[in-house]
Amino acid sequence: MTQDASSTTADPGVVVGDDGLARPAWAAAAPLLRDYYDTEWGMPVTDERGVYERVSLEGFQAGLSWATILRKRPAFRAAFDNFLPDAIAAYTETDVERLMADVGIVRNRQKIQATITNARATITLREEMGLAELVWSFRPESTPCPQTFAEIPTKSAESVALSKELRRRGFAFVGPTTMYALMEAIGIVDTHLLGSHRRGSSGIWTS
C-alpha cells in the first residue's frame, strides 16, 4: 500500500483515535482504512492465493489511492473469481471485455491483462518453489523502525531484486515500489510506526 500525498503533507507520526489507540494518520482517516490497518495490514500472508491477490491489487493501485482499491475489493473478488490463479489463467479476451465493462473495479486494460498474465506465471512457478515461497525468500535481515511516515522507505534493495526476479519469470506490474508495498502488506517488512499500537503485531518482527 502506498500513501496518498494529500494525507502526508503534515506528518505528525501517530494519531491517537477516540478508542485511545495510536495509528498513522492514513489509518485514522476513515473506518474502512482503520479496520484494514487494525486487522490485516502487515499480518503474514503465506498462501499462494493470498499472495497472488495482493500482488494483483497492489498492481491495480498503481497511480491510485489504496482507499479506492479497498472500497472496490469485494467487487474485484467477485469479478476475478476470488483471485484463484487457475480460474484466471483460463480467461480469454471475452473475459477481458467483461472486466472492462465492470464499473465496480478499476477498468484498466493493461492491469487486467497483467492480472491474467500473472495468474499463468503463478501456475508455472508451482513447478519450483511457488509464488508465496519466492516472494518470502526476499525477506530482509532487518526491518525499518520509522517514527514518522516520512521515514518509511518506498522501496528497498530486496524489493528491487524481487521485482527483477518476478519480471524474469513473466510477471507484469511488479515494479520495486509496488513490491515494497506488497512486502509491507503481507508482513515481510514491518513499517508500522514505532508509536503505533500495531508495531510488532505480525510476530515476524518484534522490534
Automatic annotation (TrEMBL):
Keyword Hydrolase tagged: yes
UniProt keywords, alphabetically: Glycosidase, Hydrolase
EC number from the UniProt entry: 3.2.2.20
Q: Which Pfam families match?
A: Adenine_glyco
Instruction: Tell me what this protein is called.
Output: DNA-3-methyladenine glycosylase I
Molecular function as annotated in GO = DNA-3-methyladenine glycosylase activity
For the keyword Hydrolase, the answer is yes
Q: What class of enzyme is it?
A: hydrolase
